[in-house]
Structures are given as C-alpha cells and as structure tokens.
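Appendix B. Worked example

We walk through a single record from start to finish. Start with the input: the chain for GNAT family N-acetyltransferase, Mesorhizobium waimense, length 148.
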Amino acid sequence: MTEITVRPLAQSDHADWQRLWTAYLTFYETKLPEEVYAVTWKRLFTAGEFEPKGFIAVLDGKAVGLTHYLYHRSCWSDKNNCYLQDLFADPEVRGKGVGAALIEAVKQEAGKIGVKNVYWMTHETNATARKLYDHVARRTGFIEYDLL
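Next comes the structure step. The output line below is what the pipeline stores for this chain.
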C-alpha cells in the first residue's frame, strides 16, 4: 500500500476540500448554503489563535480525507483544548489508515503548542468510525446536549 500523506490545507486544495466536505455533510444528512462553504474556506486560512485549521490526506496522488480542528480556552487548564470538529475519509479508503493519520496529525500539531486535550464527537450510529476512535482514544462517557 502507498503511504498516506497528511498535510495542512492549501489554497490549491479548494476543489478537493469542497468535494470531501460535501461528502462528509451528506454522510450526516446535512446541507449548508454556499455562503457557509465560502466563509469556512476563508476562515481556514485566516490567521488567529482560535480560527479553524485543516489537514488533507492524500493517497496515490488523490485527496481522500480531511479534518478541521480548532483551539479554544478551557477553565480547567492554562492551555487551550483542541476540538477536532470534522473528520472524513472517502468510503473507498476506509480501513486503510486515513482517519487515524488525520487524527494523529491533529494530535501532533496540538502538541507543538502544548495542548494535551484533543477531543471530538461522533454520532452513536457511526459504527465504522467508532471502531477507529475506540482504538486511538478513550471514550469519556460524556453525553452531548444541544439547545438548537
């Protein structure tokens, strides 16, 4: 198998990013207006401690996965936390290490600035992803509530 390359998103990745993020949103049965795509893409390249960032995974010369992550303050630590907001691998490459490589890239990047808490959530029915998550992280037992 060819090695998976994970790197920060570049402006030249726009078409691949849009394709992958659309597939991610479709997986979660969600559609967002074009304005949200545009502002998200802009934010991914805006300097700032709390602006979102992203990585793209490439396998055999093709973009096959992406992740978005962001830092935020915590009342439990003097360091920020890192929220891994979106994680997606093309269905045809699932099980080949793309998701794990993206998670590891975020972990390594967060570690460079002293962040020790990288966390995320997934839907309870996402059994494929949960197998990976159970392998690379610990399940905290917390339940999410939402006011929307």
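Two observations about the output. The longest strand covers residues 62-72. The mean pLDDT is 94.
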